[in-house]
C-alpha cells in the first residue's frame, strides 16, 4: 500500500533572478501582498459587492496585519516562510512515511486571472517553473498542473506535455461560479480533456483556490453599516460558497454523462471540507436511479454508483 499526500504546495518566498514564471507581466500584476491575499481569499465576493462598499486589503484582513506586526520582519503571509528543495522534501516524506506527494503550485498561480489573452502562455510558464523545482525528485514529487480551458484541445495537449514531466494531476477552475469556457464540464465537448486525463493517468483536482463563486446580490450583507457584522464577516461569507461550486462541477459531470463515458476518470476534492460529501453522494445516487417522476436515465448502469 502506498501513502500519497494529495495536497501539498510549493510556496515561493522570492524568485531567483530570471526564474519568475510571471516575470514578463509582473509590472501589470498586483504587487501589494495584502491586496493579493485579499483577492485570493475573497476576490469573488469583493467583485460582486457594490464598489463603494468594497474594503481594501488591510480592512479585510486585520488579523493577518496584526500577526505581521507581531512577527519579526513585519511581513504579511498566510504560511510561514520556508525555502525547500526537492531533496529536503523527500527526506521529510521518508521520515513520516509518505511515498508520493501531489504538489500544487504556490500562490503565484492565482495571479493568472489577471493576464487576459496571455493566460495560456502564463499557464505554461507556471507549469514549467514547478516542473523545474521538482525535477530532481519527479519520481516522488508529482506536480499539479494549472490549465487554460479556453481551447479544450490545447488543454489536452498541455496535460500530455506536463505528464511527460512527471505531473499526475491538474486543476479544474470556475469563473464567477461558471465553467471557464462556453460549456459545462459534463458537456461532450469536454471529452477530449477527460480522455486525455484517463489515457495519461492524471487526476482532475477541485481545489478551493480555483472555485471562483458567483455571489450576485448575496454579497451585500451591509458589513460596514450600523449594526453590520464588520469585515471579518466578509471573509467567512467568501468561504461559504466553495462547496456549492464543487457540487455544481460534479453534478455537471455526473448528469452530463462524463463519468459514464469515462468510467476511469478520477476527480479529487481538495480543501473544500468533507462533512457534506456522504449525504450529498447518497442524494445524487438516489437521483440517478430510475423512477416514475424522473424517468429512466441513460447513464444509469449500476444503481447507486457514483465514481468519484
Instruction: Report strand %.
Output: 5-15%
Low-confidence parts lasting 5 or more residues at pLDDT below 50? Answer: 300-308
Q: List SSEs in N-to-C order.
A: EHHHHEHEHEHEHHHEH
Q: How far is it from the N-terminal to the C-terminal residue, by CA? A: 20 Å
Largest sheet at a glance?
6 strands, parallel
CA-atom Rg in angstroms: 21 Å
Helix content: 25-40%
Spatial order of strands in the largest sheet: 1-2-3-4-5-6
Number of E-type strands: 6
Helical stretch tally: 11
Overall average pLDDT: 91
Give the CA-based shape.
globular
Structural class: alpha/beta
Description:
- The relative contact order is 0.12.
- This protein has helices at 33-48, 57-60, 62-70, 86-96, 119-134, 152-163, 191-200, 231-238, 242-255, 258-261, 277-287; strands at 4-10, 100-105, 141-145, 169-171, 203-207, 267-270.
- With 308 residues, the protein is of the alpha/beta class.
- Helix content is 37%, strand content 10%.
- The longest helix is centred in the first third of the chain and has 16 residues, at 33-48.
- The two termini are 20 Å apart.
- The protein is built from 11 helices and 6 strands.
- Strands 1-2-3-4-5-6 form a 6-stranded parallel beta sheet.
Amino acid at each position: 500500500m502506498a501513502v500519497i499526500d494529495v495536497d501539498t504546495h510549493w510556496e515561493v518566498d522570492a524568485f531567483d533572478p530570471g526564474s519568475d514564471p510571471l516575470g514578463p507581466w509582473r509590472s501589470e500584476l498586483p504587487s501589494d501582498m495584502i491586496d493579493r491575499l485579499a483577492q485570493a481569499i475573497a476576490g469573488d465576493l469583493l467583485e460582486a459587492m457594490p464598489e463603494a462598499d468594497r474594503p481594501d486589503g488591510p480592512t479585510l484582513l486585520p488579523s493577518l496585519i496584526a500577526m505581521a506586526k507581531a512577527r519579526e520582519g513585519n511581513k504579511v503571509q498566510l504560511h510561514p516562510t520556508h525555502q525547500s528543495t526537492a531533496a529536503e522534501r523527500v527526506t521529510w516524506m521518508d521520515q513520516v512515511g509518505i511515498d508520493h506527494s501531489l504538489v500544487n503550485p504556490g500562490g503565484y498561480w492565482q495571479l493568472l486571472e489577471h493576464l487576459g489573452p496571455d493566460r495560456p502562455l502564463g499557464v505554461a510558464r507556471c507549469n514549467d517553473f514547478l516542473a523545474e523545482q521538482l525535477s530532481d525528485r519527479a519520481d516522488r514529487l508529482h506536480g499539479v498542473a494549472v490549465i487554460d480551458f479556453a481551447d479544450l484541445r490545447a488543454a489536452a495537449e498541455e496535460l500530455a506535455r506536463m505528464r511527460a514531466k512527471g505531473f499526475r494531476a491538474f486543476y479544474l477552475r470556475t469563473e464567477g461560479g461558471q465553467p471557464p469556457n462556453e460549456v459545462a464540464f459534463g458537456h461532450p465537448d469536454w471529452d477530449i480533456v477527460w480522455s486525455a486525463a484517463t489515457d495519461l493517468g492524471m487526476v482532475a483536482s477541485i481545489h478551493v483556490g480555483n472555485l471562483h463563486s458567483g455571489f450576485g446580490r448575496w454579497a451585500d450583507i451591509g458589513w460596514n453599516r450600523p449594526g453590520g457584522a464588520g469585515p471579518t464577516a466578509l471573509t467567512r461569507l467568501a468561504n461559504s460558497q466553495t462547496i456549492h461550486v464543487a457540487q455544481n462541477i460534479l453534478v455537471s459531470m455526473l448528469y452530463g454523462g462524463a463519468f459514464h463515458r469515462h468510467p476511469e476518470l478520477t476527480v479529487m476534492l481538495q480543501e473544500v471540507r468533507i462533512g457534506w460529501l456522504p449525504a450529498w453522494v447518497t442524494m445524487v445516487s438516489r437521483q440517478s436511479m430510475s423512477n416514475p417522476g424522473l424517468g429512466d436515465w441513460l447513464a444509469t448502469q449500476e444503481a447507486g454508483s457514483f465514481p468519484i
